[in-house]
Amino acid sequence: MKFLSLLFLFLLSSCVSGSLDYVDDRGFLPAVRGNSPEYLVMVDGYYCVDVSGKGGMCSTRIRNLKDSIIQIMPQNYAYKIHFLCSKAIDFEFSQDVKKGKEYFITVPHDNFKDVETFVCIGEIFPDDREDKVSSMFEIRYRVIDSSYVEGSLINFKDGEVLLGRHALHSKIYDGKEWKSYNKQTVVETKEKNIMAVVETYNMRYSYYNF
Question: Would the pLDDT of 6 be above 50?
Fold first, then answer.
């Protein structure tokens, strides 16, 4: 009886320790057929994620005189990428990428300098799976004027929130509630994990810790 108890505990601990056999998920709907962008890339130095933190879909601002650089990390397989942007900017291509190779896409600013918004979608076809299996990413761009000056950075140091000299209306979240301030450039707080929003007269905004 004692032997059986020990055997049961051994088998249980083996399962808990994560000794799971690989099983493919062919019975599930592939991401692209489910219309779900999930392929993680970087856009101009930032990971492309949505508001929930899931990779594969994002929106970003791009200045009309700056190229956009999309970076795809090395993969454990070779693949073909098809990349397509809105008709207004006329940018589309396909490319084979070798296994283990980092890949970069440059969207030239000359293609979008005269538009307000555009969308680019990339689809990845891995060579180690069936043709019907693929994944995609989607990037939505808002083109802003190169002369536009963004709001000042919010700094937090030694119990003081430095909101900037142009802070007209500000809100600070201290972990319990949002507190409002008017024309206050520096706010003292005992809290360490705060969030802050600053609005200027011209409605330029700055954010901290979002």
Answer: no
Residue 12: the pLDDT is 52
Locate all alpha helices (DSSP H) within the chain, ordered by sequence. 2-16, 109-112
Range of the domain at 134: 42-144
Q: Tokens standing for 115?
A: 């538009």
CA distances from 88 to 61, 85, 126 (A): 17, 8, 29
129 and 169 in a single domain? The answer is no
Task: Report how far apart, in Å, the C-alpha atoms of 65 and of each of 58, 62, 69, 71, 147 are.
Answer: 21, 8, 13, 20, 10
3 state DSSP class of 131: coil
pLDDT higher than 60, residue 104: yes
Q: Domains in the chain: how many in total? A: 2
* pLDDT mean over 163-188: 96
Strand bridging mode 57-63 / 135-144: parallel
Report the pLDDT value the prediction gives residue 7, as an integer from 0 to 100: 47
Has residue 189 got a pLDDT over 90? yes
Q: Return d(Cα 108, Cα 44) in angstroms, integer.
A: 13
Q: Of 100, 123, 144, which residue is a domain's last?
A: 144
pLDDT of residue 181: 98
Residue type present at position 181: Y
- In total, the chain counts a number of residues equal to 210
Asked if 100 and 74 touch (Cβ cutoff 8 Å), the reply is yes
Structure tokens that stand for 195 in this block: 């969030």
